[in-house]
Amino acid sequence: ASPSPPPPPSPPPPSAPSPSPPPPSPPPPLPPPSPPVTPPAPPPPTRVVSSSEELRLAVEDVTATRIVLEPGTYAFDTSADCTSSFNGIATLTEEGQNSALCIFRGLVLEAQVPGTAVIDARGASAGPGGRRAIFIDFGRTNTLGRSPYTSSTRDTVELIGLKITGGYLPSSQSNAAVDLGLANGAGIKIHHIQGDVILRRCEIYGNVANDTDSMGGGIMIAPSWNVHSNAFCIRVQSCVPSTVALVDCTARDNIAALGGGVYTMADGLSLSRSSISNCVATSSGGGLYSASGRTTLSNGTLVHGCAAPEGRALSLKGEVAYALPAPTGRWLPNGRCEIFRAACTYHPKYQAAQQSACLAHRDDCSLTLEPRAEWYCQAPTFVQPCNWDDARGGDPSLLGQRLYELPASPVEQDFPFACAAGLLGSDDPDEQSSSACAGPCPAGKYCPHESTLEPLSCTSGHFCPPGTSIPFPCEAGTFSNATSLTSAGDCTDCPPGHACAIGSLEPTPCRSGTVAAGLRNDVCTLCPAGYYQDQPA
Questions:
Q1: Is the pTM of this model over 0.90?
Q2: I need a labelling partner for 219 at 20 to 30 A (CA). Which of 182, 413, 474, 516 fits?
Q3: What is the pairing mode between strands 46-49 and 99-103?
Q4: How does strand 417-418 pair with strand 330-331?
Q5: Quick count: other Cβ atoms within 10 Å of Cβ 353?
Q6: CB-based contacts of 253: which residues, under 8 Å, 6+ apart?
Q7: Mean pLDDT, the chain, integer
C-alpha cells in the first residue's frame, strides 16, 4: 500500500493586530466666562430746588438724599407746620411744632454756591406760636409714634453753605409749650438724634427765642435718644453714638434766655474754625450755654462780642475743653492731653528688662489706649489731666493735643483770651500758652490793640521801648523827626536859640525879643531889661 501523503502545512498563525493609537487628548476646558462688569453705582439721588415749596417737598421725598439749593432766599411765609405730617405719615406735633423745615432722616442740604442760599423762617409773622427755621429729629422710634423711621444705626444730616435766619419763638408760649421745648432753638433745634449732624460753612443769624425760659437762640441741641430703653442718652453704652459738629460756621446776632448763640445738653458737640459773635442771653451764657454733656472747641474757634447778665461768653455746667491752636493773637493756659499712668515699679535686679522697657516707653504709654505688651505700661491713675476715656464719656482723639479744660464757671470775657495791648500775638500754639503771648512788642514798635499781630513803627517825635502800646513823646527840650526810636536818648537835644516842646518834630526858632541860651530849652524867654534881640535864631 502506498504511504499516506503528508498533511498539508498548517497555515501560519494570524499575526497579532497592531495596537490602536491612543485617542487624542481632550481639549483643555475653556476658562469660565468673566463675570459681567458691574456698572458704577449711580450717584445718590439729587434734587435741585429754587423755591421754598420745592425745598419742602424735596425734604419730604425719601428718595432724595441730597438737595441742592440754587442761590436765593427761601422764605416760609405761610403758617403751614412741617411737623403735622411727613410723607403721609403722622409725626410728632410736640417738640418740633412751628418749624419751617423738618428733617427726620439722613439728608444733605447744600447751597449750590456757599453763602447764597438763605432759609428765612419769617417767624415773626407766623402767628402766635412763631416759627423756627429747621427741626432735626431722626432718632425716635415708631413705638413712640414720633418718627416715620426706625433707626438703630447711624444716620447723617449735613447742612452745607446755608444761611439760616428769621426764626422767632415768642414769649407768649404756655407753660405746657415751654415744657415741650417749643420755645427752644429758634434757628435750628437738634432733637434726640442717633448719628451725626454736621454743619459746614453755615451762618446762623438773626434768630430769637423770646421766652424767659428759652434755650438756644441760634442752635439748641437736646440729648440723644436711647432706642433700647426710650430714655435720654447721657453716656449710656446702649445708645447709638451721636455727634454734632460745626465746621467753619458762624452763629451771630441770635437771642435766647439761656445760650444766645448755642445751648447744648448733649455729648459730642464740637466747633472747629467757627465763631459765635454778638449773641445775647437775657439770663446766662451769651455765646454758649453747656447744660450737660461734653463740648470741644478747637482750631481757632472764637466766642466774642456776646452779652449776658452771667457768663457773657460762656456759661458752663457740662464739660467743655478747648484744643489749640487758638485764634491768632489769643491765648489759653493749656497742657498736653495724655494718660497719667502709675510709676514703673519692676524690680531693678530680677525684672530689669521690664523696668527698662517701662521707662523707655513712658511717652508711648501716655498716648496709647491699648499699649503693646512689651512696653510694660502701668495702669492709668485715678486723676487724669483730660477726659480721654470714652468709657467715662471722654474723647480718645484728644490724646496728644494741647488742651485747656475749662472750669465749670461763667466766662465773662471774649474766649479765648486776647493778648493785651503792648504784647505781640501769634498763631503758633507755642506762643499761645500764657498771657505773655509772643512777648513784648519789639523796641521801636508799638502794639496799640489787643491781639496785635503786626506792630506799627514808632511815630515821629516819639520813642517806643519794648512792650509799648502807646508811643512816648520825646521829652521837652528834645525833638526828632525820625521814626522807630527806641528810647528817650534817641531824641535830639534842642539847639541854642530854639525851643522844643514835648513831642516836637523839629526845633522852633525863638522870635525877636526872646532868647534860648544853651541846649535842651523847651521855651524861649524874654530878653532881660537893658538887652534886646532883633534877629530870629
A1: no
A2: 413
A3: unpaired
A4: antiparallel
A5: 11
A6: 205, 206, 277, 278, 279
A7: 84
